[in-house]
Amino acid sequence: MRRWMAVLRTPVGAGAGLLLLGVLLLAVFAPVLWSHQANAIDTDHLLQGSSAEHWLGTDNLGRDIFYRVLVASRTSILLALLATSIAVVTGLALGSAPAILGKRGGRAATAVVNIAVAFPGLLLALFFAVVFGVGAKGAVLAIGFAGAPSFARLTQTLIAGVAERDFIAAARIAGVGRFRMLVRHILPNIAEPLVVNATIGAGGTLLAFAGLSFIGLGVQPPAYDWGRMLGESLSGIYVHPAAALAPGVAVVIAGLAFNLFGEAVAKGFGVQVPRTRWTDRTPEATPARDDDNDAVLVVEDLHVTFPGPVTPVRGVSFTIHKGEIVGVVGESGSGKSLTALAVAQLIEPPGQVRAAELSFLGAPLLGRLPVRSTAAVRRRLLGTSFAMVFQDPMTSFNPTKRIGVQLAEGAREHQGLTRRAAMDRAIDRLRAVRVPAAERRARQYPHEFSGGMRQRAMIGMGLMGAPALIVADEPTTALDVTVQRQVLRLLETIRTEDDVAVLLISHDISVVAQICDRVLVMYAGRIVEDLPSTELATGARHPYTRALLAAVPDLDTALDEPLAVIPGRPVDPARMPEGCAFAARCAFASDRCRVEDPVLIDQVACWHPQAQAEYSNFRTGQR
Amino acid sequence: MSELRFEGVTVRYGRALTAVDGVDLTVPAGQVVGLVGESGSGKSTLARAAVGLAEPAGGQILLNDVPLHHRPGARRPLQMVFQDPYSSLDPRMTIGDSIAEAMPRGPREPRGPSRRDEVVRLLELVGLDADRVSAYPGALSGGQRQRVAIARALAGKPEVLIADEITSALDVSIQGTVLNLVRTLQRELRLSMLFISHNLAVVRYVSDIVAVMYLGRIVEVGPARDVLGNPQHPYTKELLAAAPRRGSTALPPPDEALVADAEPADPHHPPVGCRFHPRCPIGPLIRTDREHCLTLDPTAEADHRLHRAACHHAAGVLRAVGSNPPVLMQLKEDSQ
What we know:
Organism (chain A): Kribbella pratensis
Radius of gyration of chain A: 34 Å
Strand content of chain B: 15-25%
Subcellular location (chain A): Cell membrane; Membrane
Number of helices of chain A: 20
Pfam family, one (chain A): oligo_HPY
Structural class of chain A: alpha/beta
Largest sheet of chain B: 6 strands, mixed
Helix content of chain B: 25-40%
Distance between the termini of chain B: 41 Å
Shape of chain A: elongated
Keywords (chain A): ATP-binding, Cell membrane, Membrane, Nucleotide-binding, Transmembrane, Transmembrane helix, Transport
Protein name (chain A): Oligopeptide/dipeptide ABC transporter ATP-binding protein
Oligomer: heterodimer
Number of strands of chain B: 12
């Protein structure tokens, strides 16, 4: 309901809603108010043009066309709505039949729909019009049934989408019958798109109905609708253009009202992308500090903001040196992935990235560059020295292109290699990431690769240039534990062999602990602790880091005790509390924590950092 | 308290893919069987077959020695908790309605207000406030939704509960509370449970019995302590080696490079002989004399080995000599 209201608040939605309301009100009240004027026969003024008395002139019996157009709105719209509801109900029944009838009956219903959809709607309408006979009733049935197949197909598609969700399976296991399943679980979840499409469909039906009446298959005299009036006055269009145009204009307006309203609602329910202008970045970025020659990536006071305003990343600063593996851990919503995306310049508008400094190999990444050529230089720098590995290797490759070609693409673009040389390089890189039978695999498509192999190929793609930094966002999360280890080892090997720095984002602190030199723990958009991974087990000082470590069960977890948990739930970035974001879940929180936000001092952002000795008897609380 | 038994269960998707291939597995009454394996090993398919979401192509699934039959609309004695709590609750239904819907309907079941009381009792059982009854899933966090899903499964008065990767979609800080809840409930209600996870550490924490699945087959099964303490199958050993240990800050030393980089087998084309041989660190890839692994299926003799290990070279071989407990005999490794 709230979303419907939101639609009505947009200019298009409000306009279309008003128009539709007007058309519907007209259909309800016009016959009551103006029936008399519309039917008054005036033999003195036959087929007259527009005058002060008859705005749009009169017809062959001297009746006022303006009032007739107004009064005809009821018949036209009522019949169109009737036809639409026949289409919707029949379509719904046909489309949801497979869900009720079980396997065999369902297949038959689907076949019927498939065949019916193959016929053009107009052909079906004419066919049914002939079958049901000339007249309003016949036309309603004809147009209704002609519109049913496309609605049935829509219903089927929507149901198929919902049927795969787990709650349908859960209801089946709970012993919910097919009919109840349809009514309680499936229909409510597909109702919105159906309603929207029915509204848009009503506009089309109105037009179709006017068409049938126009050619004399629809409403029969003495009844009249817009289509019929159009047909009757068309012969005199050169003499009385207004008489022919008026019903046409009425059809257009009413049709527009339905269509516009439907489209506005559809747009409102879809994904909304509020437009914000992409200007508010740091205008001119400062060059990197000279004293840190070894630094590959310098991030200083990084903020990522989305409209709302929501700031999921609030002032993150860190530096990655040559050949260093830095891990970022945190729960969902901690801002760790957004940090990685911001570094990779992959935050799309309306998201905004601000930072006091964000530089890669000494070159600033943020800010508009004054000269166009420098932009190209920056792109080349990113193209050859920067690599990104995503969580799901299936979606990060183009499924229609061979792996080798995709690897070679970047090298041809950025390094100017020939097709041949680029392909050789691709095969060489696949070998480097230890893809067996690299030459053969380079000619395969992504779906022929297993998840682990795809992830290797993805890393291989990053190695096509001479990367200084690989940003890996949850690279092992979609992989099995045994494969996970292989990919981690590969990253470690690349680091040692080529002196590449790695920024590894993960929710799994044990993954990070295994290969990283340094771990950044993030919570609510901040780095709360920065420590060498060798000290994770014993040297963590922030209560959150400790809680996170204690919460992960491992092969040495005591079986007779409950698992350590962190009470409460992660912070919603839209409702950031005052003071320390972790205070509400922290066993050591004091009044100061609730009002004053701790900053990262001495590698820990906490007012009450825990001493190392206390670690052994640490527990955040049990439930 | 019921016993769930899979006897030679085979599940196929189409003609090409045999997701589960002749699985024998028993979930004893009041015990938790943990099923581990990588994605594509068929563990979720086995669960779906048990609750009637997948049709077995062969074998049978027995509850207390009676074959299970699933009819639409009939009460199901097996209930399942799904992996993704964001997809497993109907977004258009209040959580109270979702739970009430799963409660058995019949002349002797509670009605009206007492039905509502039962919903509240279930919510409180999983640690949610009673006033959440009329909330929609959209208002709950992932962990809370998973609690609702557990309450819904319990509402069906299940004889066996199946938990399919119930914590893998949750944050670590939430995972613990859900695991604690599952363990407490299982003990209080003496539930029989099939607990599926890819995470060996999680399975170890909740299970009495551990079964390891690889490419549609159970390759090792036994009491949790024994299987994890004395793994027989090389795949189990590999899983153990990959699982995190407290305070470990380095990758375990690499195995033989050849095997470490081998690709997991494709379930569409399972290898002949031992299904694990293309990845096996003690198999024909490393030791050329072990050609029988390429042709002989070790599953046939599995019943005679410790933990029913599907490996020709499992160290211990079990031979019942008419006495109890069974006698362990060491055989020379290449005697097969």
